[in-house]
Design goal:
Largest sheet: 6 strands, mixed
Order of helices and strands: HHHEEHEEEE
Strand content: 35-45%
Length: 148
């Protein structure tokens, strides 16, 4: 796990340098694939399918919690159930705005943007996120999530 977190930190640092590695696929196609997968998380969320939302996380994924880093998809899932899914369904609808995908070499990408939770006669909640994605398993998935 610590190696993955070091890789994530290194990837973020490389993003600032705009490293371009010839991967055999364009940055545009990588961005399109990741955007489509990110959009599928919102669709799963809005349909009330927590498993659909969680499918984008690697099993060992991490997130920044209130008390620091938290590891494992099961930990992230438990947090979702305690917070946004207390009733067994999402409390509000989810959408993403201003999404930017920055490939970080062949198997990693930094994705930033804004999430918006709205509806259900509740005040709209907006926040920013940064996620690190990997396709080491042959499919782009989130390995780190920092939303706030």
């Amino acid at each position: 796990m610590r190696l993955r977190s070091l890789v994530a930190v290194a990837c973020v640092a490389l993003a600032a340098c705009h490293v371009n590695v010839n991967t055999g696929r364009s940055s545009e196609s990588t961005a399109a694939i990741i955007r489509a997968r990110l959009d599928s998380t919102a669709m799963g969320w809005n349909r009330g399918e927590l498993a659909g939302y969680m499918a984008m996380y690697e099993p060992g994924a991490g997130q920044m919690g209130a008390n620091g880093a938290e590891w494992g998809r099961d930990t992230i899932l438990a947090g979702m159930k305690k917070g946004f899914w207390r009733t067994g369904r999402p409390l509000q609808q989810l959408r993403y705005e201003n999404v930017e995908v920055r490939p970080l070499g062949e198997h990693y990408a930094l994705v930033t943007g804004r999430f918006v939770l709205s509806g259900a006669d509740r005040p709209e909640r907006k926040g920013v996120f940064s996620t690190v994605w990997t396709d080491e398993s042959g499919e782009w998935r989130m390995m780190w999530d920092h939303s706030g």
